[in-house]
Amino acid sequence: MIKQNENKLLRIGVIGLGYWGPNLVRVLSELPGCIVTALCDLNTNRLNQYCDKFPTAFGTTEISKVLTRDAVDAVVIATPTKTHYELAREALSQGIHTFVEKPLATSTSECNSLIEIAKDQDLILFVGHVFLHSAPVTKLKEMVLNDEFGEIYYMSSTRLNLGPVRHDVSALWDLAPHDISIMLDLMGSAPISVNCSGLAYLNRSIHDVCTLNMHFENNRMGIIHVSWLDPHKKREMTVVGSKKMAIYNDLEPLEKIRVYDNGVNYESTANPIGNSYADFQVSYRYGDMYCPRIAGVEPLYAELSNFVECILESKTPKTDGLNGLDVVRVIEAANASLMENLGDVEISPLTHSIGNVALSKSN
Ligand SMILES: NC(=O)c1ccc[n+]([C@@H]2O[C@H](COP(=O)([O-])OP(=O)(O)OC[C@H]3O[C@@H](n4cnc5c(N)ncnc54)[C@H](O)[C@@H]3O)[C@@H](O)[C@H]2O)c1
Hints:
The two termini are 34 Å apart. Strand 4, helix 4 and strand 5 form a beta-alpha-beta unit. Helix 6 (135-145) packs parallel to helix 7 and helix 7 crosses helix 9 (321-339). The radius of gyration is 22 Å and the shape is globular. It is built from 9 helices and 15 strands. By secondary structure, the chain is an alpha/beta fold. The chain has helices spanning 21-30, 44-53, 63-66, 84-93, 108-121, 135-145, 171-187, 299-312, 321-339; strands spanning 10-15, 34-40, 58-60, 74-77, 97-101, 125-128, 152-162, 193-199, 209-216, 220-227, 229-241, 245-249, 257-268, 280-290, 345-346. The chain has a 9-stranded mixed β-sheet. Strands 3-2-1-4-5-6 form a 6-stranded parallel β-sheet, sandwiched between helices. Residues 357-363 have low confidence and may be disordered. Nicotinamide-adenine-dinucleotide binds at residues 15-21, 40-43, 46, 63, 78-81, 83, 101-102, 128, 130, 164, 174.
C-alpha cells in the first residue's frame, strides 16, 4: 500500500540528530519522492540547530509526537544502539515504515519481534547496512558471482579510528556490523562458528578493541579487527581467492578496489607419500594489478533511495529485517565468545538464504 500525503510525497521523520543523523537528514532532503516532516532528539540544542537548517520539518523532543501517522509515513532511527529496539517497535506498531541504523537490535529475539510486527502490518523494515548499497561492495559481489576470485579462501578487514567512543555498546556491536554484513554478503552464507576476543580499557565493561574470526563452510574464514582506540583511521578489506586477490580501501577517493592477479601454486612432487619440504613445490604468480571502475554514487544516497523506493513500490529491501537478523545473530554469538571467554561459539542453522549465492545444506 502506498502511503503519501496530498502532495504525493512520502513524509519522513528522523529520530536522533547526533553525529550520524544529520547526514541522513541531508540526503533525505535531497531525495525525490519524499519530504522530511519531523525531527526528534532529546537534546534541544541539536534539535534547534537542525530545525533551522531544514524548515520543512517540525522539531520535538517527544517521540510520541513523531511516531504517529498524523506526522509521518516513515521514520529513520539514528539513536544509540540500545534504543533501537524500543523505538522501532513503537514505530512499527503505529503503522510507520521503519529504517533502523545498524545494528538492528541487541538480540536475535528483538530482531525476530521487529520482523514479525513489520510482516503483520505489511510495513518496510529497513536496516542501515549502508555498505551493501555501496558501489565498491556491489562491484566485489559482482566479481564473486562471476567467479573472478575463484574459490574464496578468506577475507580480512580492519576498521580502526580514534573514536567515536560509545557508552552503550562495545566496538563489536558498534563497528563490526559493517564488516559482518559485507562478508556475509560476499560469502553468500552465514558462518558456522565465531570466535571473538578483545579488551576494555576506557570503561572496564565496554570493549574498545575486538578481533572476530568467523568460520564458514568449505574451509573459508572471515577475520575482522575493529577499534575506536587507534591513532590511524583505516577502512580496509582484503579478499583472497584461488585465482585473484583484492584490496578494498574505502578511504581511497578514486581507486577504492585494487585487484591483483596474484596467487600461489602449491603442488606435491612425484613422491606421493612424502610430506617433507622437498616433496612440495611452491611457485608464486605476480600478475597485473587493476582498479575496476566504481560508480560515484554516495552510498548513503543509494541506501536511502532504496528505502523510499521499497516503500513506494512495495519492494523487499536487500537490507531488510532478516538481513539485520543475520548480522545480529553473528554478533550475539561473538559477544558470548567475548564476554564469557567461550572460544568458538556455533551459530544455529538459518532458515532463509543470504545474498544471491545458494546456501549449502547445513546453512
Ligand atoms: N551507517 C553508518 O556508517 C553509521 C555511522 C555512524 C553511526 N551510525 C549509527 O547511527 C546511530 C547513531 O550514531 P551517532 O554516532 O549519531 O550517535 P550519537 O550519540 O552521536 O547521537 C545519538 C543522538 O540520539 C539522541 N537520542 C538518544 N536517545 C534518544 C531518544 N530516545 N529519542 C530521541 N533522540 C535520542 C541523542 O541525544 C543524540 O543526539 C547508531 O545506531 C550508530 O550505529 C551509523
